[in-house]
């Protein structure tokens, strides 16, 4: 059950990770939100959201951080 959820979560994460390096930057997040939701957010709003999920302080969101946020 957890595996199915993790696979689904990984697919979502991969949509945000545009360049496929395993980390979502504020810039990637902002672009994908604009594309998927048609809503514009500023670079600083995107960075704020990433920072709120970022636990290792690199200011990017890894899958582990994304997954932890989903299960938080
Ligand atoms: Ca990336
Ligand atoms: Ca991080």
TrEMBL record:
The UniProt GO MF terms for this protein read: calcium ion binding
Which Pfam families does the entry mention? EF-hand_7 (PF13499)
Alphabetically sorted, this entry's keywords are: Calcium, Repeat
Ranges for domain EF-hand come to 4-39, 41-72
Does this UniProt record's set of keywords contain Lipid metabolism? no
**Claim: Protein biosynthesis is one of the keywords in the record:** no
Query: Protein name, please?
Result: EF-hand domain-containing protein
Source organism per UniProt: Streptomyces botrytidirepellens
């Amino acid at each position: 059950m957890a595996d199915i959820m993790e696979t689904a979560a990984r697919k979502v994460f991969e949509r945000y990770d545009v360049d496929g390096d395993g980390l979502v930057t504020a810039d990637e997040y902002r672009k994908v939100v604009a594309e998927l939701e048609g809503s514009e957010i500023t670079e600083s709003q995107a960075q704020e959201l990433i920072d709120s999920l970022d636990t290792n302080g690199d200011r990017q969101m890894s899958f582990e951080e994304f997954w932890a946020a989903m299960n938080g």
